[in-house]
Amino acid sequence: DRNVRDAGIDLIKDHARFRAPHEVEAAGRLLRPERIVVAVGARPTVPEVPGLQEAGYITNVEAVDLPALPRRLAILGGGVVAVEFAQIFARFGVAVTLLARGPLLRGEEPELVAALTEVLGREGVRLETGARLERVERVAGGKAIRARRGPEAIVCEADEILLATGRGPALEDLGLDAAGIAHQAEGIVVDAEMKTSQPHVWAVGDAVAGSLPFTHVADYQARLVVHNALSGERPLEAGYEGVPWAIFTDPELGHVGQTEAGARAAGFEVRTAVVPIRGLARAVTSDEPDGMVKLVAERTTGRLLGGHVLSARGGEVLGEIALAVRLKLPATALAHTLHAYPTFSEGVFWTAFELGKPEAG
């Protein structure tokens, strides 16, 4: 707060709502700004499961501020937050059960997800995928989650439940209709300049319909809005080619661009290459052998369509892949670039090298 105020910003810590297109009310004050940016973020979505509210639950927010560790933790969800917190708590010695309705980390490359799943299993995480939640109830000494996978009944007893079933834009009681700002269940509607249906109002981050839920994307959008709202220069448009996705498990899982299945569904004829991390000198010297790199390229041109990394510090390896995807470079551009030895980035080099080899037959 002090840094914000020292920068000359009038900070009001209260719920704000529109009263009219040019009027915002907060802390009993009525403000009439010339330009407005909506950056309210997201809040957890709560599934309609009988007994869940009565039994009680925590989210990732409360999970990092618990006064004591639970002995048993049930995590509901199969996405990024669910998987990251499953490993965190397991490494603290908590007995963790993760219950997901579908497969883990939908949208990631199956080979890499399978390898990460093996790591989680070795660390003691009980994984129950394909589990349809039926009800939650309080029992002696804790809470019981009852689910079903086809005809199979699944019962999980825990001391605490961590809800990680997704997030939605926090648009409640913002007065968007009073301001004439178009919105839908997925968020506020914006154009390529991040401008809403009101020409003096912009929106960024998780509040935006269809926006990727990443801090680095929100930061990019915010810098764009600062330019468009304040510079007086020609407006800039947002572009999302080559956005890196990173999941901060150990090893880290990340990707840029399309999966093999996604590229084929988009009509591309593709080539792929996969190289295990365990063969890299850095993986040997640091004793971090889990993971692999997979690259997806267009068969005829060699253009890199997507890159996928599971390795220690895997998120930090994505930068060159993001650049190659955004600039529509061939995978051979990565193979012709010198990589420091010994580093995990050599996994990208060797995978691109394999892609550059002539196809057999």
Can you tell me about this structure?
This protein has 361 residues and is α+β, with helices and mostly antiparallel strands. It folds into 3 domains: 2-33 and 171-230, 3-Layer(bba) Sandwich (FAD/NAD(P)-binding domain); 52-165, FAD/NAD(P)-binding domain (3-Layer(bba) Sandwich); 244-356, Enolase-like, domain 1 (2-Layer Sandwich), CATH 3.30.390. The chain is 26% helix and 28% strand. It has 12 helices and 21 strands. The longest helix is centred in the middle third of the chain and has 16 residues, at 215-230. It is globular. The relative contact order is 0.11. The mean pLDDT is 96.
Rg is: 23 Å
* Number of structural domains: 3
Binned, the helix content reads 25-40%
Beta content: 25-35%
Query: What's the β-strand tally?
Result: 21
Instruction: Give the class-level CATH name of the largest domain.
Output: Alpha Beta
Residue windows where pLDDT falls under 50 for at least 5 positions? none
| Morphology | globular
The largest pleated sheet is described as: 5 strands, antiparallel
Q: Superfamily at the CATH H level of the largest domain? A: FAD/NAD(P)-binding domain
| Count of helix runs | 12
Structural class comes to: alpha+beta
CATH topology of the largest domain: FAD/NAD(P)-binding domain
Report the average pLDDT across residues.
96
CATH architecture of the largest domain: 3-Layer(bba) Sandwich
Across the major sheet, the strand order is 17-18-21-20-19
Could you tell me how far the N terminus lies from the C terminus, measured between alpha carbons in angstroms? 65 Å
